Amino acid sequence: MTLKRPIAVLLLLIILMVVVSLTMARSSAEKNAFVVEDFEVSDVPNDDGTGLVLSWKPLDRQARIIEYRIYRGISPDTLFYHASIPINVKTGVAADRMYYYDSSWNTLVETKSPARMRRERKQPVDSPLYRSIPRDPEILAQLVPYYSMLSMIPNKRDYYRLTRKSYSAEASDSTVYAGISLRRSNILAQLKPDVQYYYTVMAVDERNNYHDMAPVREGVPKPNPPEPAPSFYAALIEDKDTIQFEWEYPRFSGDLYTFKILMLPAIEDSVWINKRQQPQYGQLKPEVLAYEQVQQAGSDSPKNYHIVDLIELYKKGFTKEQFKNARYALEFGDDQRFSAHSSLVQPQIANSNMLPSKVTYRVEDKPNDKGDRLVVIWDYPMVFLTKTSSLDSSFSRLRINYQLNLPESQKVSNIYCEFSELESGRSFKTINEFYADNAIILTTPPAYDYKKGFKVKMTLKGDPEIPASYHVEQDLVWDNDMMTLMPGKSLWVNGVDVSGLNTAVYRKRVNGGFFSLIKAIPSYDSSFEVPVPYKTTIYRGIAGVNIVRGDSIFTYSGSDVYRRARTKNDPSGSMLLISSTLDLVYDRDAERTIQTSLFPDEAKKMVEEALIKLRADLAKQEEGLKKLRADYPLVAADPKNRTESREDQQVTAAEKELDTTRKLIRMYEQNEHLVYANSIGLRGRRIGYVARIREDDRRSMAYHVVRTNGKGLFTEAEYTKDENGKHIYDIPLSNWFDRNKFTTLVAAVIFGLIVMFFLTLAKRGKSLYIRPIAGLQEIDNAIGRATEMGRPILYCMGIGSLQDVSILASFGVLSAVARKAAEYDTRLIVPCYDFIVTPIAQEIVKEAHYSAGRPDSYDPHNVFYLTNSQFPYVAGVNGIQIRERMATNFFMGYFAAESLLMTETGNHIGAIQIAGSDAATQIPFFITTCDYTLIGEEYYAASTYLSTNPMMLGTLKGQDYYKFLIITFLVIGTVLATLQHTQVTNLFPLR
Q1: Strand ranges (DSSP E) for 679-727?
Q2: What is the chain's alpha carbon radius of gyration, rounded to the nearest angstrom?
Q3: Non-local CB neighbours of 294 within 8 Å, separated by 6+ positions
C-alpha cells in the first residue's frame, strides 16, 4: 500500500527529529563526560591575604585535553576568562591534582582587549562564562572596589606625552592627576583581602571542544602569619667580639616588614614552640639584639645577614659565656602585625681565620654593549674541570673538559695545567693550553693506575696581567657509578677550598637607603653581569576611574562614587586616574629625591608651594633655635664639645632640623636639573629632558659584595666610596661600536673593494673566466632531448617557501629553462608546493615565453599550486611524471626526505635528471639517482652562469677571490697556532 505524500513527509520529519535528538544527546553525554571533578578554591597559606589556590583532579589522558581554562569573577553569574594551563596531549598530567595560584599581579584588561563583553565560544545563552574582561570603563568601574589595580603603560611615551590633566569628582580631592585612555594602558590586578571571588575551570580537548565547566566555587583570601625562615644560622666570632647571623627568606616574603633577632636562655625547642606566640613570649623575656625593617626593591631580595657588636652589650653587663650558651631565634613581622618565629639555633664558635677571605671588588662597564650591563668583578678568572672521557679502552688517553669563566674585559692567552699523581703528588705532565677550546688531551703514565686519580694545578696568563702565584687546583677521582674519572667536590684557589662559598652581590639605588640582594654566585665564577635595563614600561597605581556621562563626570575610587559637572578643560573621554608626579633626580646635598610633574605649570606650582612652606618653617626654626640658645646659654657652640645632656641634645636636634630645611630650600632654588626643567615651557621638550635625567638617575646604583658559606660565616668587602665617604654609583655606558667587530668591518671593506674591482673589469668588457659546470652545460641537450621525444619537461622546486635562499636561486634557473623550452616549443610543467611561490613562478615562465617571442605557447595551467603537505606533494609529482612520461626532470630548490622518492620515479621512467640544492643531507641521493647534480655553491652560481650578465659575473668572481683570501688566512692561522702563536686566530671574533 502506498502512503500518501503528506504522511510520508511527516514520517520523514519525525525520523529526522529523532536522529537529531539522539545525536545531540550523544554529543551532550560526551561533553558531560569530561567535566573537571573535585574542584576546590582555598586560601594561600602564609601570605598577605592577596592569594587563592585552585586545585582539581585532572582528566584522564584519553580525554585528549590540551588546556584547562580558568574563569574568575566577583559574582557566580558572570565569570571572565582569567588564565589557561596548557597540557601535553600525548602525556597528559601525571600528578593526582593540578594547582593554580592566583596570588600575584595578573593582567585584568589589555589594550587589545575587546571593547565589549563577548560570551565564551560554544557556550549557551545562559552560560556565565565570558571571554576576557572588555576594555569598557563602565565594567572596569564596577571592578574597582574588588581589586587592587595597577596601570602598566607599555609605551612610556604615552605616559610622558599623551596623558591629560584630570581631576577627581571628589570635592575634597584637589590632586592633579594624569588621565590616560584604556587604549594606551594595560591594567594589572591583585586580589584584595577578605573579598569573595568566584572561580570555575573548563577543559578543552584537541578538537577544540569546550567541555562543561566545573561547579562554581568561591574563595576569600585571608591575611595569614608569614612563614618562618627556612634556615637561620648564628656564628660567634670570638676574636672580633661579634655575632654574625644569616638566614633565608620564605617563598612569600613580599609583605614582610620587620625582622627581629632574639637571644634566649638555653631552653628546649618544645618550650620555645609553646611560648613563642604567647604575650611577652611566655615570660621568657628574650633580649632583642636587632630590630630592623625588611627592605627590598624591585625583583631583588632583602638583605639576609646581620652583625651584632658585642662590645656595646658587654657594657650592659652581658658576658661572652652568656652569648656562647644562649639560643637565638629570628622573628619576621608583616604589615598586618602577624609574626613568625624560626627554630632555636645554637651559635657556632669560630675565629676570624675561619671566615672567608675579604675580597676586593670593582665595577666595570661591560664593553661593546648597548649600555644595559655592568660587570662586578671580585677575583681573577676562574678555570675548573667539568668532566673526562677516555679516548681508548685502556684509559691511556683522556679528554679532560674544562670551563673558563672570565669577564669580557679580561683576556687569557695561556692555561698551564700541571698533572700529578693524587696519592704521591709526583708531577708527570704539564700542558700549555695556548688556545682555550675547553678540552685537554692527556696521556697518562704507562705504569700508573688511573683509578687512583690525579691532581690538576692550573695557572693562567693573560691581559690584564694575572699574578703567577694565582692558581686553581682540583682532583680527578674515579667514580664507580659513572665508570670514569670525575672532578672532585673540592675546588682550591691559592690553597683555600672555596667549593662551599658563595659571593653575594648587593646593590643600592641612588634614592634608597639600603642594599638588596641581586644574586648569590657560586665559587666557580669570579664576576657577575648585572642587567641594568632601560626603562620602557611605566607602572602607576590607579587612583580611580573617571567616566563621562553627558554633562557629568563620575569618579569611581575604591568603594566610593563621586559626581561633578564636567568643565571645558576636562577630557572628553573616560580616563584612568594615575599620578602625574614623578621622581626627577636625587639631590646628593639634601639627600632627597626631587619630584616634579608631567605638566609644566604644575611643576612650577609645586616648587613655589614647597618654597613658601619651607621658608615659613625656616623662620619658625630659626626663632626656636634662638630661644633654645637663650634658655641654655651654657651649651657649647661647637657640637663636637657637647655632652649627652638633654639641653645639649635639644640644641643639636634643632640645629640639624634647621640645616635640613636650608638644604631643601637650596635644592629647590639651585638644583641645576630642576631649574633647567622648569625653564622649558613646552611640554614635549621639557618631558624629554625630564625622562632622560630621571631614567639615568634611576639606573645609577652602588654595589657591594659579601663572601659567605651560607651558614653565618661571611665577610663583607669594603664599600666603594669617594673621598667624602659617599657611595660611588655606577651606570652602564652605551657603546656606538662593538670593538670586537672591527675585523668584520675590515673584512667587509676588503670584500666590497674586491667586488667593485671585478665589477669595473666587467663593465669595461673584460672576459671573466668561470669554470664549466657540467650540469648547466647539459641543460640545452636535456631540453633538446625532450623536444625530439615530444614529451614534456618537469621543473620541481621542492618543498621550500619564498623565505628560503634556495628557492630564490631556483627562480634564475627556471627563467633560463623556460626560455629555452619556449624556443623549442616544448611543454614545461611546474608543480608548486607553496601558494606564494606559485604566482611568481607563473610570471617568470610567462616572461620567458614573451622574451623568446613565443607568447602564444604559454599556458598558465602548466604552472600550478599542488599542495603544501610534504608527502601528498610527492605523490602528486610522481603521478605527473608517470602520466606525462617526462623526458627531462629538473629538481632545483629545497628538498628533504622526499627527494629520493621523486628522483627514483624519474629514473624509473628513463628521464634525464638534473638536480641542485643546498640541503647537504639530500646531495647523496641526488648523486645516486640523477645524471647531473649541482652541489652547494654551484647551485647558487647557476643563475649567473646561465645569464652571463657581466655585473653578476663580476660579483661571482669577487666572491671567489674573497674565498681564496679566507682560505689563505685559515692556512696561516693553522700553521701559526700549531707553533703556539695565536695572534691570527685571536684576530677574528668567535661570533
Answers
A1: 701-708, 714-716
A2: 39
A3: 253, 256, 257, 258, 259, 302, 332
Bridge partners, residue 516, by sequence:
507
Across all residues in the chain, what is the average pLDDT?
A: 91
Whether the predicted pLDDT of 424 surpasses 50: yes
As assigned by CATH, the class of the 232-342 domain is: mainly beta
Give the span between the Cα atoms of 245 and 717, in whole angstroms. 17
Tell me the pLDDT tens digit for each residue of 300-312: 899 999 999 999 8
In whole angstroms, give the CA distance from residue 797 to residue 916.
10
Check if the beta carbon of residue 498 is closer than 8 Å to that of residue 369: no
- Indicate the Cα dihedral angle 734, 740, 746, 748, nearest 10°: -80
pLDDT of 387 above 80: yes
**Whose CA is closest to 957, among 765, 821, 761, 797?**
761
Helix-helix angle 805-823:837-851, to 10 degrees: 30
Q: Which residues contact 311 (CB under 8 A, 6 or more apart)?
A: 241
Please answer whether residues 100 and 70 qualify as being in contact, where contact means their C-beta atoms are separated by less than 8 angstroms: yes
Mean pLDDT of 346-351: 95
Express each pLDDT in 883-908 by its tens digit.
Answer: 999 999 999 999 998 999 999 999 99
Fold of 382-500: Immunoglobulin-like (2.60.40)
pLDDT digits (tens, 9 = 90+) for 602-631: 999 999 999 999 999 999 999 998 998 888
pLDDT in tens, 642-693: 777 888 888 888 889 999 999 999 999 999 999 999 999 899 999 999 999 9
From residue 157, alpha-carbon distances to 162, 179, 180, 187, 535 in Å are: 7, 14, 12, 17, 11
Tens digit of pLDDT for each residue in 580-598?
999 999 998 998 999 999 9
Domains 382-500 and 777-940 share a fold: no
Taking 90 as the threshold, does the pLDDT of residue 29 lie above it?
no
Given a contact cutoff of 8 angstroms between Cβ atoms, the answer to whether 673 and 594 are in contact is yes
Q: Tell me what the mean pLDDT of segment 955-971 comes to.
A: 89
Report d(CA 17, CA 475) in Å as an integer: 82
What's the rounded Cα separation, in Å, for the pair 605 and 609?
6
CA neighbor of 837 nearest in space, from 892, 911, 886: 892
Q: Residue 130 and residue 326: Cα distance in Å, rounded?
A: 60
C-alpha cell at 911: 628521464
Q: Torsion over CA of 786, 792, 798 and 801, rounded to 10 degrees?
A: 120
Q: CATH says 777-940 is which class?
A: alpha beta
What lies within 8 Å, CB to CB, of 121 at 6+ separation is 131, 210
* 804-814 pLDDT per residue, tens: 889 999 999 99
Beta bridge partners, 162, equal none
Residue range 323-344: average pLDDT?
92
Give the residue with greater pLDDT, 762 vs 466: 466
| pLDDT score of 1 | 43
Q: HSE-up of 675 (CA within 13 Å, CB side)?
A: 9
Instruction: Give residues with Cβ within 8 angstroms of 974, minimum separation 6.
Output: none
- Residues paired with residue 798 on neighbouring β-strands, in sequence order: 894
Domain boundaries, the chain: 1-32, 232-342, 382-500, 583-698, 740-770+950-991, 777-940
The helix/strand count (H/E) of the chain reads as: 23, 50
Q: What pLDDT sits at residue 741?
A: 84
pTM assigned to the model: 0.83
Q: How far is 860 from 864, CA to CA, in rounded Å?
A: 8
What is the C-alpha to C-alpha distance for residues 403 and 756, in angstroms, rounded to an integer?
44
| Helix axes of 742-763 and 950-978: crossing angle, nearest 10 degrees | 140
DSSP letter, residue 682: S
Nearest alpha carbon to residue 258 among 333, 328, 331, 330? 333
